[in-house]
C-alpha cells in the first residue's frame, strides 16, 4: 500500500554511480504519494519514476530527463541539481516547490526544456540561466518571481518559448529579447512590467503568440508589430497604452485573436482590421476610440466575439455587420460608463445573426425597433 515518505533526491546521485553518472544530489523534497522506486537499491536508477537516462554514446546511463509534473511533491530546488550536466529536460510542475532558483542551474549546458510552472518559487530569475545555451523552452509561469527579466536571456538563440506569466516581475521588457529570431511564443502577461513595448519587437518574425496583457506598459503600440506576419494571437489589453491602433495590424494575415481592451487608445478603428479574415475575437472595449465602426468588419466571416464597449464611437451601425453569421457575442454598450455615441436604428440584418447569443447596445443613442430575431440572442 502506498505510504507517505520523506525522500532526498541526493539518493539518486549515490545510485547514479552504478549508472556511470556520478553526479551530486538533485533536489530535496518531501512526498505525499508513494515513490517507492526512489532510493530502492533493487531498482535501477534509470527505472525510477520520472527519470529518463540516455541510451547512446556518452549519454548512455546518464540522466537526461526528470519529469515529476503533476505529482504531489513539495520542497526546494537544490543547487546540486546543476551537476547533472547531461540533463536535457527538467519538468517540475508539481505545484508545491518553493524557495528560489539556484544560479547553479546555469551549469546545465545541455538543457533544452525548463518547466517549473505552477509552483511557489520566489526570488529573481538568475542571469546564469543564460549559460544554458541550448534552451528552447522556458516556462516559469504562476510562481512568485520578482525583480527584472535578465537581459542575458536574449543570448539564448535557440529559444522558441518564453512563458513568465503570472509573476510579479518588474522593469522594462529587455530589448535583448527581440534578438531571439527563433522565438515563437512570448508570454509576459500578468506582471508589473513598465515602459514602452520595444519597437524592435518587429524583428521577431517567427512569433505566433504574443501575450503582454495586464502589465503597466505605457506608450504607443509599435507600428512594427505589423511585421509579425505569422502572429495568430495578440494580447495587449489591461495596460496604459495610448495613441492610435496602428493600421499596420491589418498586415497580420494569420491573426485569430486580438485583445486591446482596457487601455487608453484613441483615434479610429483602422479599416485594415477588416482584412484579417481569420479573426475570431476582437476586443477593444474601454478605450477612447472615435469615429465610425468600419464597414470592413463585415468581411470577418469567422468572427465570434466583437466587443466595442465604452468607447466614443459615432455614426450608425453598419448594415454589413449582418453578414457576421458566426458572431455569438456583440457588445456596443456603454457599461454604465461614458458609453458610445452610436445613432440611428439597429440594422434589420442583425436579426440574421442566427448564432448570436448576447447583444448589448445600451448606453447609445439608437432608436427604433429591435429587428425580428431569427437567432437565439437576448437583447
What would you note in describing this structure?
Keywords: Cell membrane, Glycoprotein, Kinase, Leucine-rich repeat, Membrane, Repeat, Serine/threonine-protein kinase, Signal, Transferase, Transmembrane, Transmembrane helix. Residues 1-21 form the signal peptide. It is elongated, with a radius of gyration of 26 Å. The termini are far apart. It contains one helix and 27 strands. It has two domains: 1-65 and 72-85, no CATH class; 66-71 and 86-367, Leucine-rich repeat, LRR (right-handed beta-alpha superhelix), CATH 3.80.10. The strands form four sheets. A 14-stranded mixed sheet has the order 3-4-6-8-9-10-12-14-16-18-20-22-24-26, with no helix packed on it. The chain has 379 residues and is mainly beta.
Layout of secondary structure:
Elements: E1 5-8, H1 10-16, E2 28-31, E3 51-53, E4 63-67, E5 73-76, E6 89-91, E7 97-98, E8 113-115, E9 137-139, E10 161-163, E11 170-171, E12 185-187, E13 192-195, E14 209-211, E15 216-217, E16 233-235, E17 242-244, E18 257-259, E19 264-267, E20 281-283, E21 288-291, E22 305-307, E23 312-315, E24 329-331, E25 341-345, E26 358-360, E27 365-367
Parallel strand pairs: 4-6, 5-7, 6-8, 8-9, 9-10, 10-12, 11-13, 12-14, 13-15, 14-16, 16-18, 17-19, 18-20, 19-21, 20-22, 21-23, 22-24, 23-25, 24-26, 25-27
Antiparallel strand pairs: 1-2, 2-5, 3-4
Work out the radius of gyration: 26 Å
State the major sheet. Answer: 14 strands, mixed
Shape: elongated
CATH class of the largest domain, please? Answer: Alpha Beta
Q: Estimate percent helicity.
A: under 10%
Which fold name corresponds to the CATH topology of the largest domain? Leucine-rich repeat, LRR (right-handed beta-alpha superhelix)
The percent range for strand residues is 15-25%
Return the string of H and E elements.
EHEEEEEEEEEEEEEEEEEEEEEEEEEE
Q: How many structural domains can be distinguished in the coordinates?
A: 2
Spans of at least 5 consecutive residues with low confidence:
1-34
Euclidean distance between termini CA atoms: 58 Å
* Total helical segments: 1
Strand line-up across the major sheet: 3-4-6-8-9-10-12-14-16-18-20-22-24-26
Domain Disease resistance R13L4/SHOC-2-like LRR: 127-261
Protein name: non-specific serine/threonine protein kinase
Signal peptide: 1-21
GO molecular function: protein serine/threonine kinase activity
Amino acid at each position: 500500500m502506498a505510504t507517505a515518505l520523506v525522500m532526498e533526491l541526493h539518493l539518486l546521485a549515490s545510485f547514479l554511480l552504478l549508472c556511470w553518472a556520478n553526479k551530486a544530489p538533485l533536489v530535496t523534497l518531501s512526498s505525499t504519494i508513494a515513490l517507492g522506486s526512489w532510493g530502492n537499491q533493487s531498482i535501477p536508477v534509470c527505472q525510477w519514476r520520472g527519470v529518463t537516462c540516455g541510451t547512446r554514446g556518452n549519454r548512455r546511463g546518464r540522466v537526461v530527463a526528470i519529469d515529476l509534473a503533476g505529482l504531489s511533491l513539495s520542497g526546494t530546488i537544490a543547487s546540486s541539481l546543476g551537476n547533472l550536466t547531461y540533463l536535457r529536460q527538467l519538468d517540475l510542475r508539481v505545484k508545491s516547490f518553493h524557495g528560489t532558483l539556484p544560479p547553479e542551474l546555469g551549469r546545465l549546458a545541455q538543457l533544452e526544456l525548463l518547466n517549473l510552472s505552477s509552483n511557489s518559487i520566489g526570488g529573481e530569475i538568475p542571469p546564469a540561466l543564460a549559460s544554458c545555451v541550448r534552451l528552447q523552452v522556458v516556462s516559469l509561469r504562476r510562481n512568485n518571481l520578482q525583480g527584472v527579466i535578465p537581459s542575458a536571456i536574449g543570448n539564448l538563440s535557440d529559444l522558441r518559448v518564453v512563458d513568465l506569466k503570472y509573476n510579479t516581475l518588474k522593469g522594462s521588457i529587455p530589448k535583448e529579447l527581440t534578438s531571439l529570431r527563433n522565438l515563437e511564443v512570448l508570454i509576459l502577461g500578468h506582471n508589473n512590467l513598465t515602459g514602452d513595448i520595444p519597437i524592435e519587437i518587429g524583428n521577431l518574425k517567427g512569433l505566433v503568440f504574443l501575450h503582454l496583457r495586464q502589465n503597466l506598459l505605457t506608450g504607443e503600440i509599435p507600428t512594427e508589430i505589423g511585421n509579425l506576419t505569422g502572429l495568430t494571437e495578440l494580447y495587449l489589453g489591461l495596460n496604459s497604452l495610448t495613441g492610435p491602433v496602428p493600421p499596420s495590424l491589418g498586415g497580420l494575415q494569420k491573426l485569430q485573436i486580438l485583445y486591446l481592451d482596457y487601455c487608453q487608445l484613441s483615434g479610429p478603428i483602422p479599416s485594415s482590421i477588416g482584412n484579417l479574415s481569420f479573426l475570431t475575437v476582437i476586443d477593444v472595449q474601454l478605450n477612447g476610440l472615435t469615429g465610425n465602426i468600419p464597414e470592413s468588419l463585415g468581411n470577418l466571416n469567422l468572427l465570434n466575439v466583437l466587443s466595442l464597449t465604452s468607447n466614443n464611437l459615432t455614426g450608425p451601425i453598419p448594415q454589413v455587420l449582418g453578414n457576421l453569421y458566426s458572431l455569438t457575442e456583440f457588445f456596443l454598450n456603454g457599461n454604465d460608463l461614458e458609453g458610445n455615441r452610436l445613432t440611428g436604428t439597429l440594422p434589420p440584418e442583425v436579426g440574421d445573426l442566427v448564432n448570436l447569443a448576447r447583444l448589448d447596445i445600451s448606453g447609445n443613442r439608437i432608436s427604433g425597433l429591435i429587428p425580428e430575431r431569427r437567432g437565439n440572442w437576448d437583447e
